[in-house]
Amino acid sequence: MLEFNSDSIVELKKTLPVFDVVDYQTLSPLLSSYTSHYHLPGKASELTFYLGTLQVKQQAIFAAAWEPSVPKGTAVIVHGYLDHLGLFGPLINHLLDQDFTVVCFDLPGLGLSDGERASINDFSEYTFVLDQIITVCQQRFTGPLHSLGQSTGGAILLKHLLDADKNAPYPFASLNLLAPLLHPKGWWLNRHLLPIVAPFRKALKRRFGESSHDADFLAFLREKDFLQPKVMPMPWFGAAEKWAKEFETCIGSDYPVNIIQGTSDQTLDWKYNLEVFEKKLPQMQLQIIENAYHHMANEEPSLRKQIFEALIF
Fold it and tell me: What fold characterizes domain 69-89+108-309?
């Protein structure tokens, strides 16, 4: 089989099909190497596999979906910052075991999607793409719709909830947020430094922290995930800070959001965040996972089992 590496990405993006049903047997060598490299669900007679790009504001957004023969609903996964759908094999497989159709997509500027690399000016750019994904799900797949967001993906789902038209039916039957982003660690200092630093720095160098107890996952991120950005552009930090202020001043929502948070999270100021969430989301359900790090969808197996058992549909 063709080896997937950094040289594969440009050519792969040029040859991605339009999002539709694809046959595992006829996948291009590049696509086969991609799905194999990221250990995405393999061919199975009971699964219909969808893959390709959706055009959103002249950008090609990469998406994939796995549909069981008799699905009980559809689960949409929204990944975190610097991530992409290829990292969510364990969660995808868990949801397929629960007989959900699973839909994943790469956020703009990440993974195989178009857009300025790892950059965004406002989180509304993320929610606009999410709306297009919801439309595709409503047209093609069986309801009800459920959503799961990791870190920034959780923030995107919260913004989508707060911005939703109150006169229209809300599309998701459940919201599961894994360590949702509000304030990162050191956010008070960042809030004051960002306006000073931003005019002089285009980006910050990426640092790979301890985001999981799974050593193999962390090594894969550092050494073999060729879709990982190496820098973090300053506009993204501005957009994240804007989102945090927006949430701090919002009216809130009575929707029963399910938040799953680890006590060893080194990325977020999670205790403070939970205080804010409790004020703004009075009906939220909270599941605390002792010793779990930030990247909850890729924790080591025993913790991941607890995290997946805490999901509510």
Answer: Rossmann fold (3.40.50)
